[in-house]
Amino acid sequence: xxxxxxxQGIDKIQELTQASDDHPTGFMDIGExxxxxxxxxxxxxxxxxxxxxxxxxxxDNKQKVLTTITALVAQGKPQIEMHIKTGLSVGxxxxxxxxxxxxLIPYTGFPSVLNALSVAKKVFAEQGVxxxxxxxx
Amino acid sequence: xxxxxxxQGIDKIQELTQASDDHPTGFMDIGExxxxxxxxxxxxxxxxxxxxxxxxxxxDNKQKVLTTITALVAQGKPQIEMHIKTGLSVGxxxxxxxxxxxxLIPYTGFPSVLNALSVAKKVFAEQGVxxxxxxxx
Amino acid sequence: xxxxxxxQGIDKIQELTQASDDHPTGFMDIGExxxxxxxxxxxxxxxxxxxxxxxxxxxDNKQKVLTTITALVAQGKPQIEMHIKTGLSVGxxxxxxxxxxxxLIPYTGFPSVLNALSVAKKVFAEQGVxxxxxxxx
Amino acid sequence: xxxxxxxQGIDKIQELTQASDDHPTGFMDIGExxxxxxxxxxxxxxxxxxxxxxxxxxxDNKQKVLTTITALVAQGKPQIEMHIKTGLSVGxxxxxxxxxxxxLIPYTGFPSVLNALSVAKKVFAEQGVxxxxxxxx
Amino acid sequence: xxxxxxxQGIDKIQELTQASDDHPTGFMDIGExxxxxxxxxxxxxxxxxxxxxxxxxxxDNKQKVLTTITALVAQGKPQIEMHIKTGLSVGxxxxxxxxxxxxLIPYTGFPSVLNALSVAKKVFAEQGVxxxxxxxx
Amino acid sequence: xxxxxxxQGIDKIQELTQASDDHPTGFMDIGExxxxxxxxxxxxxxxxxxxxxxxxxxxDNKQKVLTTITALVAQGKPQIEMHIKTGLSVGxxxxxxxxxxxxLIPYTGFPSVLNALSVAKKVFAEQGVxxxxxxxx
Lengths: 137, 137, 137, 137, 137, 137
Description:
homohexamer, mainly alpha, 7 helices, 61% helix, AhpD-like (chains A, B, C, D, E, F), 4-carboxymuconolactone decarboxylase (chains A, B, C, D, E, F), peroxiredoxin activity (chains A, B, C, D, E, F)
């Protein structure tokens, strides 16, 4: 692992968010707002979460983001909004993101799914993307 | 939706488990062992979970099973064993299943991931599959 | 099951919410606001959650809503507000709803219960109902 | 509150479990096996959980036990077995217990429900009770 | 246990919050705002949570509050704000509170920790306390 | 951070478990049994969990282990057994471990606490330690 883990993490975030070189972490919250109370936190986010884990081979970026979104739906975490943006950024189709969330109904129940889809709807509207409907009824 | 939902669900389970026509639900537990106390339960599993949700377009079978596995890791449910089998059955590579579980460390913590990987190891051993290692160190 | 499942679900929602024929789903959120991104979602809510599950025999409407409220307290889901309304609508006394929530202290701890009771207080105030106090101290 | 809280708790447990005067806590685990390491624990269970909370007015014993069972299904706790026994003891019909658990599918998903019903099946078999089937199909 | 449990609870809250005799429960929410719908609730909070449990020997106040904060991080409960205040009040250093929350990353994942640290940052700012940084980088 | 993170993690584990130089990870499960399917996993456990997080300043080893135990009680994870051993190893008194677990009753409810105390009892028995009872009743 010749490459520096922090740089590897920054590169991965830039790849995931299609961020410019001027602000390479793009829309990803790496905990910089918390540096006054936990100055080492963003280092762990960048080095470990992105430099180590997101940089593993085995699954591709689309699978990684779908996995992330699923975990956040199951847990009801607000970070789902940021990771739905990441999903669109790595090329997931809106219907894949919706498909993944709806697929969770038998495993997490309806309320988690309804709450997550409301967030997806908001992100899709902000970015001007629309969903091809999965069924013609 | 011209096709009968129950038959649609059975067909989907057969497709997911590569089950024979003699026992079309294969290794999938659809709650038949509970028919004495909840005779309508397996109908809901087949019709709703598999006939409706697993049969939706938008994401493919591999994505559906990875999504299912992720939810079960986040929740710590024992059904993860059955769905890891399903993953292999639909053509997920062992390293994709492992990759998905390891990817969850930043979202669920280490214990959930260690517990899920122990189940994966057991299933892989039973089925004689091995994992191509993600890193040469 | 001669009756159409969708109609069965709509009838059940109307019964639970005492909704008018003009707007038969009343105050129940069936996911209609999400039809642009998941057009089949409200069908699953109506057909499966209400047409199948809420329409099962075995327990009555009051028991069904208390069960729902309990699950939502344990999970901390915001949908508890809608289902407290449903509870009043099906004839649960406010002290039954409060009694159910307070009963959860030994199982979910105080914070979940305090949060749920704050929602109940808001709903009771909006609907002008008051609670007969369970103890004279 | 003239009555001693500990005695109130013991009386409530005896009422819930239909226990004999010789062993008034019946099948209820009040943490006595843990007295070597936490000698005050069973006092809290008896005084607070049963003497205070289970003794509140507002909901009846059947509602209290259904509420308890629901919370334990949502959390996946092994104590569900003991409280299904309590349910039968206070006069809940097996189909009410099953009805409550099955009702949770839209809120907790299938795996939690399947796991809880397996426990119910075991308890019903041990006690020789059978479920009137909710549907003739 | 000669002392009245309610008085014991009030004394403990006053000790934890350094509250004045005029308003001895200080900033601690004991459920008084819910007395219209659950008049016995604040009694349980005071008598059981503070009079019994917080008054146990075995661990000191600092350990009790760190334990409380940890549980609330793991559960994502909003009560964490109040208990971070309590932590400062009983003499925990800001870096101990932050240290405890950051220590949870391997057990709860990053999102829970980021959300909790945002609350801590807000409380620290309100109270004008600053964190000695754990690392010089 | 001049020292190698992996070595730092191993040193920390050895310190926590009082392990011999022959087997420096002692009783700590670092995922070595999973190396066939996830060869990089134990590296993350050692480098990140122990080399980074457990090695942070701000809180001492006793606080770190109590925090870990609390998180595992709240989540119901089986890893609690290993970390109760770690607690004894770093010098936590049995009554501190019990005190921390019992303190969680108002936050997680009784079942989580009873389950965790059963594990503590088993570990204490294996190691021949006894608890000074917190109350003389």
